[in-house]
Design goal:
The structure holds 2 protein chains of 2 kinds.
Chain A lengths: L3 E6 L2 E6 L4 H7 L6 E2 L5 E2 L12 E4 L2 E5 L10 E4 L22 E3 L3 E4 L3 H12 L4 E4 L25 H15 L3 E3 L2 E7 L3 E6 L2 E5 L3 E4 L3 E3 L12 E3 H11 L6 E6 L2 H12 L3 E7 L9 H10 L1 H16 L3 E4 L1 E8 L4 E7 L7 E5 L1 E5 L2 E3 L2 H6 L3 E4 L4 E4 L12 E3 L9 H18 L6 H27 L15 E3 L4 E2 H9 L5 H8 L11 H12 L19 E2 H5 L3
Parallel strand pairs in A: 1-7, 8-14, 9-10, 9-15, 10-11, 15-28, 17-24, 18-19, 18-24, 19-20
Antiparallel strand pairs in A: 1-2, 3-4, 5-6, 5-7, 12-13, 13-14, 16-25, 21-22, 22-23, 26-27, 29-30
Chain B lengths: L10 E7 L3 H12 L4 E5 L12 E2 L5 H6 L4 H7 L2 H16 L10 E5 L2 H16 L4 E5 H7 L9 E5 L3 E2 L2 H14 L3 E4 L3 E7 L2 E6 L2 E10 L5 H7 L7 E12 L7 E4 L5 E4 L4 E5 L5 E3 L4 E3 L2 H14 L7 E12 L5 E4 L6 E5 L4 H16 L20
Parallel strand pairs in B: 1-2, 1-11, 2-8, 4-13, 11-20
Antiparallel strand pairs in B: 3-7, 4-6, 5-6, 9-10, 10-11, 12-15, 12-18, 14-15, 16-17, 19-20
Classes of the chains: A alpha/beta, B alpha/beta.
Chain lengths: 563, 386
């Protein structure tokens, strides 16, 4: 979209770029408080990808809308949201409906998620002759890796190679006759292969013959004092501001976490004009002992190594310090922004402080496996990467018939691996649906298999290089929130554990931890790890919270609105 | 006996199987009287820990419609309901806890003359059985509950009904149970149960427990345990769909039900609105995990906004399957004649409402006291083949 649109925020006009997210427009105008909680705490943009439910605002009278997922495509009237506001009288309501009234789509193959893995799988399956529908929650296809510009092109910096690669992939998909529907939130998955979604305020029931789930990942929480303050956001949220809307999270920014995405973000923000004070990495500075890992990476993916070197050069030119072996230990609100406290990664030692407008946290990812788990697909816990890994066969088929899965939602592997895996899983799904693959496609599959192996080697080496200690609850004080939504503190969790509660479900019901809008996405992994450590047991697919539908909140009126 | 004794308890006076509201209260009552009790719960989501906290008193139209053969049983048990609610209030006071218990009354709404006529007949019968009920036309209804949609023409009000937050109640009762010295064995399945030389052997995943007496307080799960001892208890699980919304300012004070449609609505102190009403769910997979269905979610939630239109803009943030236990309209409470030392504590319909009082009645029988109610209609022996 092009041009500007004036939105009304709390009675003040705000100039937005047509097509950007409401969160981007507000952030660009220095607004970082979007709502207040039950405890009157301020919240703002955090995950930037529709998961955390912290950026809720009222839009045109509609309560609890996610600013990060609301596209500015018309003059909106926006208010800050507050906890438990009264409901306005609403006339008659709509006639009650039954499942038979809900619009049904029956694609041969449904792909959920239009990121690298989903698009690649869709393309492969389509080439083999399958009829494919791709649905994605964001306003534009591309996923978190290939985030596409949603504004411009006037007055903003041009798309880079990563944008262009994504655009080409989307173009290929569309050119092959794949239907890509954006703005579709799949919030329910039911056995055997039934999905419920909301699109433009209406409910859709998707009944494919087979489905490929490629829902990606979201950033892990980092529950330290102050991590819920406005201005503290994930690295991904900041990157979405920049890569989709060419907006900056603040003028002065600190980027902290574990992994290469933080460095990339720092370079992007510097190029966009922000002052990045430092990049703080939990892993130690690469030493001679890690030369092997670096060499494997360079062999597996020289292009990614080149990118890394370029990001470092930009970081240096922008004057951003690189601080290894350190972590964010706490954040406080100050008169002019945020005061961020750093400690050595061990959690003790000399502290360093930075004053910034925005703090970006990127401490790794959790797989978005909610739909898979709701379907009953089996998972195993990987103690090394501290994540659930979906049980799949060589074709990407889960242990539920007709349900395939790939990419980061099955266990983190990165965008490059997902692209390669997509080819294999897409072709396998098409074959299972009765399509035959040509010699050309079989050759493509062989290439993809070798790419996949290469990128897996790269990832393995990468995480050897970036090996860091896991989050430790020692970083929290009794007042630190573990559950952002229900505002449950570590102290309250400790109290429940003091009552001999060993099961996560019991702790949930006792303290309300994980009962909020985000469905426990941030607190569950932390709490699960805490319980496992405390009671000396292994984590598995059942030690976390039981999966619950809807995996994203769904408005009652959207269920009642037909056609 | 296979394997070893349970690490927490090898031999005990009473083993209570099922750590829901009934088993927990019963264990606490027995322990208060100096009885050694082990309370065993498999930790699965099911009855009390998936309960939505309605305190039912008036006869539920859904049960009357679905199980007309059970209506005499329901009527027989009806006088117990207001007493059960009063018992809940006493329990809250005794524990000095906050259950978020509100005696706001319950409304069963009607959308037509026919439905109102049904409520009139039902109310007449309930009044004969001692309930405080009345019929309200729309004008009278609007005075106390000014939020219904135009479809609602009137309602039956039952003054003795209310609601509580089961999360708060269960947590407080659990603390009390621990305080009374009950041995809590959580996350372990109990069974099979065998009788050996005047004692019971309860196998758990973690070893066996010997007990002088055993109480089956596992709702529908009691059926299989009883069957192994040659006892018939026809208790069936009925997985039901529940929804909860995000929080809003106080709007719905009453417990809302419907004369002819499957809908219940109530608002917790948290501001969240709980929507249920008996839409089906199912037990899925090898783990028999209570699992919701899309058809129930759609029908239930859209019916809710038809009854109270202004909740339409709210979002549902979670659904779950609760499990009701259906028997024959009546509870199954007391000693099992065929197996000396074996007791049942299954309240039947509205098990959560009736839970604490039912536990008290069974505890009294086990402690050799005369229960305050006539418990003969609830005898487990009524299922002995005639």
């Amino acid at each position: 979209m092009t041009g500007t649109i004036t939105i009304d925020f709390e009675g003040t006009p705000v100039e937005a770029r047509a097509g950007e997210s409401l969160a981007a427009a507000l952030t660009a105008h220095g607004v970082n408080v979007f709502r207040t909680t039950r405890c009157a705490a301020e919240r703002g943009l955090f995950c930037g990808m529709g998961v955390c439910q912290d950026c809720l605002v009222e839009v045109d009278g509609k309560p609890n809308q996610r600013a990060c997922m609301t596209k500015v495509d018309r003059p909106l009237t926006v208010r800050r949201e507050a906890h438990a506001r009264p409901l306005m009288p609403a006339g008659q309501g709509r006639p009650p409906v039954t499942i038979g009234d809900v619009e049904v789509r029956t694609p041969e193959l449904l792909v959920i998620g239009a990121g690298p893995g989903g698009l690649s799988a869709a393309i492969a399956a389509r080439k083999a002759g399958a009829e494919v529908l791709v649905v994605d929650e964001r306003s534009q296809a591309g996923g978190q890796y290939f985030k596409q510009l949603s504004v411009g092109p006037e007055g903003i910096s041009a798309p880079d190679a990563q944008h262009r690669e994504g655009a080409a992939l989307i173009e290929t998909a569309v050119g092959l006759g794949i239907e890509i529907t954006s703005g579709v939130t799949v919030w329910g998955a039911f056995e055997p292969n039934e999905y419920a979604a909301t699109a433009e305020g209406r409910t859709l029931r998707l009944l494919p013959k087979a489905a490929i789930i490629a829902t990606g990942a979201y950033e892990r929480g980092w529950p330290v004092p102050g991590w819920t303050l406005p201005g503290v956001m994930t690295t991904g949220a900041a990157q979405t501001l920049w890569r989709t809307a060419r907006r900056l999270p603040g003028e002065t920014v600190l980027v902290a976490g574990n992994g290469p995405l933080n460095l990339q973000l720092a370079a992007e923000l510097i190029e966009g004009g922000a002052r990045v004070v430092a990049v703080v990495e939990a892993a130690e500075r690469p030493s001679v002992t890690k030369v092997g890992a670096l060499a494997s990476m360079a062999l597996a993916s020289p292009a990614l190594i080149r990118d890394g070197l370029r990001y470092h050069a930009v970081r240096r030119s922008g004057g951003a310090a690189m601080i290894y072996g350190s972590i964010v230990a706490g954040v406080e609100k100050t008169a002019r922004g945020l005061s961020v406290r750093l400690l050595p990664a061990s959690g003790s030692g000399e502290e360093i402080r930075f004053e910034v407008d925005a703090l970006c946290l990127g401490y790794g990812f959790e797989p978005s496996n909610e739909l898979l788990r709701a379907l009953g697909c089996g998972h195993d816990f990987d103690p090394v990467r501290r994540q659930l890994v979906t049980r799949r066969d060589a074709d990407g088929l889960t242990d539920v018939a007709g349900v395939y899965a790939l990419g980061d939602c099955t266990g983190l592997g990165g965008a490059r691996a997902a692209l390669a895996e997509g080819v294999l899983v897409g072709l396998a799904a098409a074959r299972a649906l009765g399509h035959t693959t040509s010699a050309g496609l079989d050759a493509e599959a062989r290439r993809a298999r070798s790419h996949l192996a290469r990128h897996r080697r790269f990832q393995q080496a990468l995480w050897t290089l970036y090996a860091a200690l896991a989050y430790s609850a020692a970083l929290a004080t009794p007042e630190t929130l573990i559950c952002r939504c229900e505002e449950v503190t570590f102290g309250q969790i400790e109290e429940a554990l003091g009552e001999e509660m060993q099961l996560i479900g019991a702790v949930k019901r006792r303290t309300r931890v994980g009962m909020g809008r985000c469905q426990g996405r941030y607190c569950a992994p932390v709490l699960d790890a805490l319980l496992a450590e405390r009671f000396g047991r292994a984590r598995d697919e059942f030690t976390g919270f039981a999966p619950r539908v809807p995996v994203k909140p769904v408005a009652i009126e959207d269920l009642a609105r037909l056609g | 006996m296979t394997g070893a004794a349970h690490p927490l308890v090898g031999d005990i006076d009473v083993a209570v199987i099922g750590g829901g509201i009934v088993g927990s209260c019963l264990a606490g009552f027995l322990a208060e009287d100096g009885v050694g009790v082990a309370l065993i719960d498999n930790g699965r989501i099911g009855g009390s820990n998936a309960n939505a906290g309605s305190l039912h008193v008036q006869m539920q139209s859904r049960f009357m419609r679905l199980y007309p053969q059970n209506v005499p049983g329901m009527e027989r048990q009806l006088p117990l309901y207001p007493k059960a609610v009063a018992f809940w209030q006493a329990m809250q006071a005794r524990l000095g806890a906050d259950f978020d218990l509100k005696m706001t009354g319950g409304l069963m709404v009607a959308e037509s003359r026919d439905q109102l006529d049904f409520l009139e007949i039902k109310a007449r019968r309930e009044r004969e059985l001692g309930l405080d009920v009345d019929i309200l036309d729309r004008t009278a209804l609007d005075r106390i509950a000014p939020y219904f949609g135009p479809a609602v023409v009137g309602a039956e009000i039952c003054a003795n009904e209310g609601k509580l937050n089961p999360l708060l109640a269960n947590a407080a009762i659990r603390r009390w149970v621990i305080e009374k010295g009950v041995v809590l064995i959580e996350g372990e399945s109990a069974g099979p149960v065998r009788r050996e030389q005047q004692r019971f052997i309860v196998e758990t995943g973690n070893g066996w427990i010997k007990a002088g007496r055993v109480v089956l307080a596992a709702a529908s799960g009691s059926k299989a345990l009883a069957a192994e001892l040659g006892v018939a208890i026809p208790a069936e699980p009925e997985p039901l769909h529940m929804n909860i919304t995000e929080a809003v300012a106080p709007l719905i004070g009453h417990l809302i039900q419907h004369a002819d449609r499957m809908i219940t609505l109530k608002q917790f102190g948290t501001g969240q609105i709980v929507i249920g009403g008996g839409w089906p769910a199912h037990l899925a997979g090898a783990r028999r995990h209570p699992t919701v269905e899309l058809a129930s979610l759609v029908a239930n939630a859209t019916l809710a906004q038809h009854i109270v239109p202004r909740i339409a803009s709210l979002r549902i943030i979670r659904t779950w399957a609760g499990i009701n236990t259906s028997v024959d309209g009546k509870g199954v409470l007391g000693p099992i004649g065929r197996v000396p030392g074996l007791f049942a504590a299954i309240p039947g319909d509205a098990g959560y409402t009736l839970g604490p009082l039912s536990a008290r009645l069974v505890a009294d029988m086990m402690l050799g006291r005369q229960p305050n109610e006539d418990v003969s209609p609830f005898s487990p022996d009524r299922f002995e083949a005639a």
